[in-house]
Specification:
Length: about 60
Amino acid sequence: MKFDLLHPREQLVQIMDRIYRYGLTTTSGGNLSILDENGDLWITPLNTLPIGEAEVQELEEKFG
């Protein structure tokens, strides 16, 4: 699937995972944000750990 078609929540997860995997930050490195085309701001919580697809699905079921 094309990255720009992903939900902003999934984009943040993929970006954070990539940054962490390449050693460009640590788990205490701060947070990320995206301003979407509707003007909504999506922000990761502080100290976000990289998570996988199963965790994303669990969060989506829990929080919509």
